[in-house]
Amino acid sequence: MTAPTSAPRKATLTALALGLIAGAIPSWPVPYDKLNTMETTILIGWVGLTIAAALVTRILTPLPLKPAAFTVTAGFLAAMVLRIIVECTIDPTDHNLWPFEIVWGVMVGLPSAFAGAFLARFFMRTA
After folding, report:
1. pTM score, whole prediction
2. What is the pLDDT of residue 1?
3. How far apart are CA 109 and CA 60, in angstroms?
């Protein structure tokens, strides 16, 4: 019996890691008391990096459009959840509205990831 290939696992881990980076870079350096997720710079960073993460995922891995977009979004949400967990262990009164933060993350991350994955179709056709 042959060993199963690890290519799908590597593709999924790549997409998750890129989504995690896309969610972490704009918001993690900002202290929680100064973080405003509606701020233009953070939104532009989130949207731009999530589009780029999905684009790179589709170009570098064999993942189809929908799985790539959903996996990048899962990584993006993992960055938000990790921040919530870390900051709630430091101060349990922070993030008392964390479910709304997750919903906001889905509203920002999912359309951006689909846009990036869709854009990759054009780059892959011309290459």
Report:
1. 0.89
2. 47
3. 20
